[in-house]
Amino acid sequence: MSVIKELARIINEGVNTIQSKCDASGKPFPSLDEPYTPESDAVRIQVIADALPIIAAANQLIATLQIPAMSIIVASGYVHVSAAFATIAKANVVEALREAGPQGLHVKEIVEKIKKPMDPAKLARMLRICATYHIFREVAPDVFTNNRISSLLDKGKPLKEILAKPLEAFDESPGCAAFVDILIDESFKAAAVTQDHLMDPSTAFSDEPNQLPIQRAMHTNKALFEWYDEPGNELRRRRFNIAMKESVKFEVPGAILQGFDWGALPKGSKVVDVGGGIGGTTMALYDIHKHLRYVIQDREAVIKQAQQVWQTERPEALENDTLALQPHNFFEKQPVKDASVFLLRTVIHDWSDRYARTILTHLRAAAAPYTQLVLVDQVAPLACSEDGISDVPGATAPTAPPPLLPNFGLAGSMVYNLDIQMILLCGGEERTVLKISQLLSSAGWKLQRIARVPGNLLHKIIATPA
């Protein structure tokens, strides 16, 4: 069978499987034309494994059939989509369209509502390229409305309130909006100078967190998290913390509860959420496992914001001493010596090996014989076939069948996008299994297993004192 026929077969059989499961559940697969809701998207969770090869095959089929020159030009031109997308998001267009309802708004009316000095004709062109990529819909000439994808950028507040209190725009938002806003702000600006940065002998080989594209773009010598604490960056700091707190909702529901038996920990066991931000991960654990005690550690400015969040959302955790909020620099000695679990969710990937090793070494020095280290991070596969670490359960990732790329191509591409994000902003990386094992070993930890949650971006990397 030819490659294009085989790709078509994978798509056809996969779609039939998904449709059968939807029919059996009595729930339709969500339409692109409808705004996103968690309830309507619930069926997707049931078919994630079926969808991955379809997405991979569809993208590979497009790459095969498309004129090669057109493929590379379109890929290079994604910057134009990002520019349009960034402008639309910053202007609060999504919220204006939500308030208008499914009939949409003409671009002239959008400009009036968002109170920005924008040219409606240019806004229409920005929205049209996004609609071509299935972000927004053009329902009539120059009339646009939200769709399933664009609605995820909704901050969930009245437009009037966002305009009146811009610093609080992302507070209590669903989270996706905050995460995307980081990409179209810091990341987008850093990306513009990346080629200069990576080919500059003075920065090309640096692993310092204050010698990255973001510093070049923003004209600062402060590392990202120090820069966030600078005057003038209050919105960026709040937005980042909210994005990290809410990012647990981007995962498979209950993913943090899977792959590690939190319930088996004895009553009163201490879970230390190192670099835990304002506590989104801990909150998800606390809601189910109230027999445990929790410590959230982060920078002082972050802990102040965490205090406000927990006082509002889970005040009883503070009142009954189930939770302690502790300012701590994880590059210094770890003060907690009786932790049952050191939990680090999307922390180690932020740092180059030298800095990550320092964090892990301090944790190893504070670890008791019974302490377990749980890293929640992505595990980066290669784009070719590879051998795993055979003696570590979960080390070998599932691979796609030929003729698909072993890493599922576009369907598995998020890890590589975030890997470049690390180059731009933090200096870390999304590591392969081998690199993870070597890093842990160098800091006195032994990799015991990798718990992979099907369909989830993040996996649990579990280690014990070596």
Automatic annotation (TrEMBL):
Name used for this protein in its record: Uncharacterized protein
Domain O-methyltransferase C-terminal: 208-382
A molecular function (GO) term: O-methyltransferase activity
BP GO annotations: methylation
Residue ranges annotated for the O-methyltransferase dimerisation domain, each copy included: 79-153
Annotated Pfam families: Dimerisation, Methyltransf_2
UniProt KW keywords: Methyltransferase, S-adenosyl-L-methionine, Transferase
Domain of life per record: Eukaryota
